[in-house]
Q: What sequence folds into this?
């Protein structure tokens, strides 16, 4: 389907009508775990066992690849399963990798696991500074792991500059594009080798199924990752593939509303006397606002802010809402609020969180698609209770 826009591809690609069959408007859920054959050496339409390939999952993968501007996509049972497969493919025992110091706590947890099991070295750097990334290169470096924007401080890195320098040394670059989504950013356009997603978040968008994805265009890496997934079994189920497909069709509409609401809330927070600092790339006060405008097509629905006070005020604040739900995760249609130091990043030692700026008064918000005035009113009432 060449020449069509994002919104159209998200709905129609991979679900073209088959009038020789039933004429399904929506890709059916193929729940069968195995596929029969008439002859020993022939497989019906290439399918034999759903851990290897499944028609419903194939439709999702085709859409994800197209929306990221890639040749291939692989759907996994969770974002962490997707990340683990990439690490298995690219890490070598005794090797070295570079990672953005501001990362999702779960990613740091799995990196630490690989560090212990494979005796690898990890350099955590401030990837907002390209020179700091480059200075960390060693002859053993095989991989750079980035988020942009990051979780939870919404930092950005210059993807094109980092990828250019990395490729001079045959180093692969991986970007977690969960916060931005394919609608607002396509890292492969900037030379990035692999994109990972927690499809649990915005791509599904309804907080009702787990999932992950790896998206890339490298033929050899795709074959290796396919083998790893087939061997380890972390595949997305047919039913969860269907739920993710259903959510993906409205991604563009949802992301526009997420962003519109987030910008209004960020403006409100920035002017509030009980807020010390707001982290949102769409604000002119964000130190990388210009990079965000150049690298992204939108600023997304995630923001963080520091409330004046400490842990006690932050806890009282997040427990005072009617609409914002106190919960981990993000990217659903409903607004969620959390304290990263106590929730998504509680794995990190207190001194590490403090060094990174993840204080106990830092609040992270996944702005939903409710009415913005209602959300701002809910925030105002919560501020009045502290």
A:
């Amino acid at each position: 389907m060449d020449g069509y826009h994002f919104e159209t591809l998200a709905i129609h690609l991979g679900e073209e009508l088959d009038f020789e069959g039933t004429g399904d408007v929506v890709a059916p859920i193929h729940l069968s775990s195995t596929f029969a054959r008439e002859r020993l050496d022939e497989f019906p339409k290439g399918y034999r066992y759903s851990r290897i390939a499944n028609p419903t999952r194939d439709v999702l993968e085709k859409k994800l690849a197209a929306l990221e501007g890639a040749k291939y996509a692989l759907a996994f049972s969770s974002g962490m399963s997707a990340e683990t497969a990439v690490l298995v493919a690219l890490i070598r025992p005794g090797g070295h990798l570079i990672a953005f110091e501001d990362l999702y706590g779960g990613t740091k947890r799995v990196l630490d696991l690989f560090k212990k099991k494979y005796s690898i070295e990890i350099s955590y750097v401030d990837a907002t500074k390209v020179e700091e990334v480059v200075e960390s290169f060693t002859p053993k470096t095989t991989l750079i792991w980035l988020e942009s924007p990051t979780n939870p401080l919404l930092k950005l890195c210059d993807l094109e500059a980092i990828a250019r320098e990395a490729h001079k040394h045959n180093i692969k670059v991986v970007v977690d594009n969960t916060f931005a989504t394919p609608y607002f950013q396509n890292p492969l356009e900037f030379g990035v080798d692999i994109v990972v997603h927690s499809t649990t978040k915005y791509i599904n968008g309804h907080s009702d199924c787990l999932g992950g994805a790896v998206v890339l265009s490298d033929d050899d890496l795709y074959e290796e990752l396919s083998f790893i997934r087939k061997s380890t079994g972390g595949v997305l189920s047919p039913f969860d593939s269907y739920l993710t497909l259903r959510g993906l069709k409205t991604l563009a509409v949802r992301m526009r509303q997420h962003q519109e609401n987030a910008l209004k809330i960020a403006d409100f927070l920035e002017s509030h006397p009980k807020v010390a600092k707001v982290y949102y790339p769409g604000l002119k006060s964000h130190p990388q606002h210009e990079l965000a405008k150049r690298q992204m097509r939108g600023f997304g629905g995630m923001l963080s802010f520091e409330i004046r006070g400490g842990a006690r005020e932050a806890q009282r604040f997040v427990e005072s809402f009617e609409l914002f739900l106190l919960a981990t995760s993000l990217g659903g249609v409903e607004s969620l609020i959390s304290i990263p130091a106590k929730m998504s990043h509680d794995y990190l030692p207190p001194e590490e969180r403090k060094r990174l700026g993840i204080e106990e008064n830092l609040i992270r918000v996944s702005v939903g698609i409710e009415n913005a005035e209602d959300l701002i009113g809910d925030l105002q009432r919560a501020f009045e209770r502290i």
